[in-house]
Amino acid sequence: MFPRETTIHDIARELNVSASTVSRALKDHPAISPKTREVIKAKAHEMGYRSNALASGLRTRKSSTLGVIVPRLNSYFMSTVLAGMEKAAVEAGYHLIIMQSFEMEEKEKENIRLLFNHRVDGLMVSTTSPASDPDYFEPFFKKNIPVIFFDRTPNNQEKYNCVTIDNKRAGYQLTRHLLKNNRKKILHVTGNKKIEVYRQRLEGYKLALHEKNLAFDPTLVWETGLGVDDGKQIAEKILKMPALPDAIFVANDTCAIAIMHHLQAQGIKIPEKIQITGFNNDPFSAFAKPALTTVNYPGEIMGKVTANSLIHLINTKHVEERPFHHILDFELLIRESTMNQA
Amino acid sequence: MFPRETTIHDIARELNVSASTVSRALKDHPAISPKTREVIKAKAHEMGYRSNALASGLRTRKSSTLGVIVPRLNSYFMSTVLAGMEKAAVEAGYHLIIMQSFEMEEKEKENIRLLFNHRVDGLMVSTTSPASDPDYFEPFFKKNIPVIFFDRTPNNQEKYNCVTIDNKRAGYQLTRHLLKNNRKKILHVTGNKKIEVYRQRLEGYKLALHEKNLAFDPTLVWETGLGVDDGKQIAEKILKMPALPDAIFVANDTCAIAIMHHLQAQGIKIPEKIQITGFNNDPFSAFAKPALTTVNYPGEIMGKVTANSLIHLINTKHVEERPFHHILDFELLIRESTMNQA
DNA sequence: TTGTATGCGTTATCAG
DNA sequence: CTGATAACGCATACAA
Question: Which Gene3D superfamilies would you find in this protein's record (chains A, B) (predicted)?
Answer without folding.
Answer: 3.40.50.2300, lambda repressor-like DNA-binding domains
